Amino acid sequence: MNQPATAVPATLTVPMLRTLGLVAALSGFLVVLAHHLSLPLIEENKRIAIERALFKVIPGAVTRRDFQLTAAGIEPFGEAPAATGMHLYAGYDTDGRLAGVALEAAAQGYQDVIRILYSYDPACECIRGIQVLKMAETPGIGDKIARDPGFLENFKALDARVDAAGSGLEHAIVSVKSGSKTKPWQIDAISGATISSKAVARMLNDSARQAAPVIMRYLDVLQRPDGDTP
Amino acid sequence: MSLPARHETVSADTFLRGLWQENPVFVMLLGMCPVLAVTNSAINALAMGLATTFVLLCSSTLVSLLRKQIPKQVRIATYIIIIATFVTMVDYAIQAISLELYNALGAFIQLIVVNCMILGRAEAYASKQRLGATVINGLGMGAGFTIALLCLGAVREVLGAGSLFGVQLFSDNFQPWVVMILPPGGFFVLGAWLLVFAGYRQRRERRLTEQAEVTADGR
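Predict the joint structure of the above. Result:
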């Protein structure tokens, strides 16, 4: 190549650095500004989303307290540092009585993990409602688990009694073919959305098997709406 | 696409070009990824269109303001940083407005960074034009993109879910065409819209040629 050498001016580095530095600094400033301004709103949105799901899933609940399961037992959330254990939301009615305990459960669905919030009623030892928090099921088919009235009817009083030893459920929660439910611990699957229905049954069974004995064991702690704090 | 070589004087055409003549979706076929992916409901389409318009407008403005300072060796890197900044801001803003909407739009908000329409505008227009023309043109392009997304989103929601902006349109007897809100539906509806526009444009061109012939004969 015998092109006339278009000599790059040595000073070009300076404007390049200057421009990139300026733009990067401006960018950093704007991103941090947006983050700071939106953070309280986002936190508030998250809280509202949880509360809305919670009060929908626990019939009659108007206030809530968060608990977590630690090695020492069950403790109000935030007081113990280890936040890795099971997270329980206790909902109380207008008289301050325990209306139910809500928990999150998750299992692999048809396309992605389905996450739901469900409520456990210690009075009847049954599941009283579910609310889908996140899913990527096929629209029109698998996503019926969130709104199909026939399917949601399963969770009006789904039997989840603790067994005699207090270590699991007396009857495992299973999904059965659409229209063949005979026992209160069975879930009538949605025809055409068997995988999604089975995922719901599996996550409820796995979660309730661990949580129901804990809830029954620490019922006295959960029943105090004002907690241990004086 | 004919690009103005010199500074463009702002006229109605600066704005209207984005809506019709150079519509980013129906004419230039740019930014197809969000066009096909998030138009499964009218509200998602509108939100995506507005978010993209905001990013397009802000990034074009900044690029136009800095156009004499940006050495051409690092221009693409600079544009990407500028675009990414505004996308991050939009990301936070949508989370603050509605988590539901944020979950529905998913990763496509972040993917506005690589929307070729925005980078194309920065490179082909904003880096060469004055601020006023850039803002007007960006607004036009953004409006054109939003309208195009709404065209797809509305048709897909009506056919695929029997509703528009979440309002149920038909009785319970209506059996929705679920395929329309699934990914293949995006291609079907986009194809149908392109057919409509291509047909219209061809008819108009034919009419214009006929008119020209008539005038030529009459002379």
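The CA atoms of residues 22 and 28 of chain A lie 10 Å apart.
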